[in-house]
């Protein structure tokens, strides 16, 4: 499990890094929100531990930005504030859990284990292909962590091809499954139009044409 720690208290951060490394976690550490955002673009993290009070950007704004950019892994918020308002604020910006300072390292490890179990369940419903992330539960699709706006039929079309990844599907099979109707005289033209529009949004190479047969997502 790869973790990014964002904490400007150097002493606390070093303690957390030591404990997590000793427990088998891969961990990287930064002190500022801007660094955290840059790191998240370059490296895939399974969990981010994020301090609410950072010197450059507030933790809640970093959290919100990460979610807007398509970061779907758990975020654990750390804060010295104990009031309910701060806790609600942190959770509302997209954090999955909240830990109040000071805390015991045993509690931090327990929270990480709980979020790890949640991540395992979450990953089963998230499909990553090339630069596309498709959350099958929420039906949200991101390209390079940017949310893509697809029509309902485009979402069903992409979902069908993604769920049948590696299989060539005939135009008739796709039409019947996605539109819910038996192919009519115009079905091939209708399908081609929607494939064309979908490719413009997700990328030309994601959906491949198998000439004379149908389409496939590798």
UniProtKB/TrEMBL annotation:
CDD domains membership: REC_OmpR_PmrA-like, trans_reg_C
Gene3D superfamilies tied to this protein: 3.40.50.2300, 6.10.250.690, Winged helix-like DNA-binding domain superfamily/Winged helix DNA-binding domain (1.10.10.10)
DNA-binding residues (ranges): 124-218
GO cellular component annotations of the record: cytosol; protein-DNA complex
Alphabetized PROSITE patterns for the sequence: OMPR_PHOB (PS51755), RESPONSE_REGULATORY (PS50110)
Domain OmpR/PhoB-type, residue spans: 124-218
InterPro entries: CheY-like_superfamily (IPR011006), OmpR/PhoB-type_DNA-bd (IPR001867), Sig_transdc_resp-reg_C-effctor (IPR016032), Sig_transdc_resp-reg_receiver (IPR001789), WalR-like (IPR039420), WH-like_DNA-bd_sf (IPR036388)
Location of the Response regulatory domain: 2-116
GO molecular function, one term: phosphorelay response regulator activity
Pfam families membership: Response_reg (PF00072), Trans_reg_C (PF00486)
One GO-annotated biological process of the protein: regulation of DNA-templated transcription
Keywords: DNA-binding, Phosphoprotein, Transcription, Transcription regulation, Two-component regulatory system
The name this protein goes by in its record: DNA-binding response regulator
Organism: Candidatus Roizmanbacteria bacterium RIFOXYD1_FULL_38_12
Phylogenetic lineage: Bacteria, Candidatus Roizmaniibacteriota
């Amino acid at each position: 499990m790869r973790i990014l720690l964002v904490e400007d208290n150097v002493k606390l951060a070093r303690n957390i890094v030591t404990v997590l490394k000793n427990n088998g976690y891969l961990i990287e550490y930064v002190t500022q929100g801007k660094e955290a955002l840059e790191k998240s673009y370059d490296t895939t993290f399974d969990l981010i531990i994020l301090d609410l009070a950072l010197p450059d950007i507030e933790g809640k704004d970093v959290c919100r930005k990460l979610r807007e950019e398509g970061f779907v892994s758990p975020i654990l918020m750390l804060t010295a504030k104990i009031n309910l308002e701060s806790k609600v604020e942190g959770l509302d910006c997209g954090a999955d859990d909240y830990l109040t300072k000071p805390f015991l390292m045993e509690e931090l490890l327990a929270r990480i284990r709980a979020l790890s179990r949640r991540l395992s369940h979450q990953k089963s419903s998230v499909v990553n292909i090339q630069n596309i992330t498709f959350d099958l539960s929420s039906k949200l699709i991101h390209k390079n962590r940017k949310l893509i706006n697809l029509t309902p039929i485009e979402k069903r079309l992409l979902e069908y091809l993604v769920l049948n990844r590696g299989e060539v599907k005939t135009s008739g099979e796709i039409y019947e499954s996605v539109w819910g109707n038996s192919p009519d005289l115009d079905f091939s033209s209708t399908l081609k139009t929607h494939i064309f529009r979908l490719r413009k949004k997700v990328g030309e190479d994601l959906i491949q044409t198998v000439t004379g047969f149908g389409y496939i997502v590798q």
